[in-house]
Amino acid sequence: MTPDFMLRFSALLVGLIVVGSIVCLPLYKWKLRAFFASSLFLKTIWWVPIFIVLVAILYGGVAVAIVVTLFIMLAATVEFIRNRGYRSNVAVAYFILFLFLMAHLGLWFVYLLGSAMVLATVCVISVLSDVTAFFLGNYAGNHKLPRWINNRKSWEGVLGQLIGAGIGALLCWWILQTTVPILVVASIGIASAFGDIVNSIAKRSLNIKDWGQTIPGHGGMLDRMSSLSAALAVSLWLLI
């Protein structure tokens, strides 16, 4: 990790938070007070500590990645037990899948030594995939997903996962000066959508909205990491 890369990476993250906040304002009729009092603003602010943890992983390498991975798994286990996820075979299957996918965060530095900048790129692409899905779903989400998945989400949002992955890849190429193969970019979008959908299916089987409030505004650890865990796993094996 070079100082120049970290400077560009930090600038990208700050820019995304600022632009994301501005794009949120139409949802509140451009009323700043309403936005600042909303859970969406809280969600936006909490991207800052999330990104700080990511930076710590990029600098700390395999040791920090393993510690963070174990913490996420522990928090996810607590959320699963509190919501009595064991009552649903679907939720149990998802939880096991999540733990398997999440383990790939630590494996990144085991299998791809010196891959910190590539890992940063994959994370940015996955995050942009999620963010674009949110906005496209809110502004143009006319075709809802089936109730057994989550009828508050839309097919436009799923499409947004793929579009967002492409936007993320372009931003990384332009600002971070890093690239990953187009197959990996498309796979990150698909994997992110898959992670989000299976998480929704598991929650519907338990009739819950979120797994918890481990990360204010984002829900539980299982909610926040559902897309990213799938993206990390798929992209790792494709790059290997």
Defining traits:
75% helix; mainly alpha; 240 residues; 0% strand
Question: Would you mind describing this structure in some detail?
Answer:
With 240 residues, the chain is mainly alpha-helical. The protein has one domain (3-239). The protein is 75% helix and 0% strand. Helix 9 (155-176) packs across helix 10 (182-206). The longest helix has 25 residues, at 116-140. It is globular and about 45 Å long. The model has no long low-confidence stretch (mean pLDDT 90).
**Sequence of secondary-structure elements:** HHHHHHHHHHHH
Rg to the nearest angstrom? 17 Å
Structural class: mainly alpha
Number of separate structural domains: 1
Count of discrete alpha- or pi-helical segments spanning 4 or more residues: 12
Mean pLDDT: 90
Poorly predicted segments: none
Helix content: over 70%
Distance between the termini: 20 Å
- The shape, in one word, is globular
Main sheet, how many strands, which sense, barrel? none
Percent strand equals: under 5%
Number of strands: 0
